[in-house]
Design a protein that fits this description.
By secondary structure, the chain is α/β, with parallel strands linked by helices. It has 2 helices and 8 strands; from the N terminus they run E-H-E-E-E-E-H-E-E-E. A hairpin with a 2-residue loop joins strand 6 and strand 7.
Amino acid sequence: MAQEDQKIDYIEMHASDFDAVQAFYEAAFGWTFTDYGPEYRAFNDGKLDGGFRKSDLKSQPADGSALVILYAKDLEGTRQKVMESGGLIVEDIFSFPGGRRFQFADPHGNELAVWSDG
């Protein structure tokens, strides 16, 4: 697939335990992974590529990090899947103009969100 000019192309986050974050994102969202050794593990969510670099740092909006937001048709079902897969709900489902969302932390502590327009 051709790269799109001046569009977000790749997301990179931190993780100290690649196996734990991989198991979480595979179970919760169906992401696929490519292992590039002890310092890097890449992922594809079916639409966007990204990766985890070896680090103890965490991506948290309260510390000034950008918030990565995923979309789900079934917000409650996705919330349940996140919890069953080992994610921690940081902010439970709330409404905002245009939809609803919740925020969660992955096993490393990176904070992401899931939104739905339904």
